[in-house]
Amino acid sequence: MNDKIIPSVIRFFLFAALQVIVFNNLQLNTYINIFIYTGFILLLPFEIQGGLLLVVSFLMGLLMDVFANTGGLHAAACTFMAFCRPGVLRFISPRDGYDSAGSPTISSMGIGWFVTYAFLLVFLHNLVCFFLEAFRLSEFFFTMAKIILTTFVTVLLLIAAQLLTGKPMKS
Q: What is the mean pLDDT of residues 118-130?
């Protein structure tokens, strides 16, 4: 685990900087907000302990709230995403289990597995974030459209980033 601390810290600041500098200033339309910073939580090692996972996810969300002035929306959504991560990992676990020293990447787990993993967790993050933002059911369909489109675009960008920067894919 100690050999993964430095890369995780670098990844934390890289995802935060990308979100704050690029994606917070990118306005596609009213339905799509790209939350690339969720990739940090997705790519944390399998062996990370539950308490540490919740703390670093909360800190990432809090940092996003500070820069986006969103009053805790991202902190709540990231903490919920981290809370759900172990359950999602158990739900989509491969037959022979996970390599405890590995990370949930396309190169180590395959693209099909990663798409399922990323889509579920990013969807849960966006569900909390956008329903807390709307805080009413009168905009249910608009909010669901935002959740689905944002999830789709965010996961596509996370996959593209991994394919461009990662190791060769697992077959």
A: 97
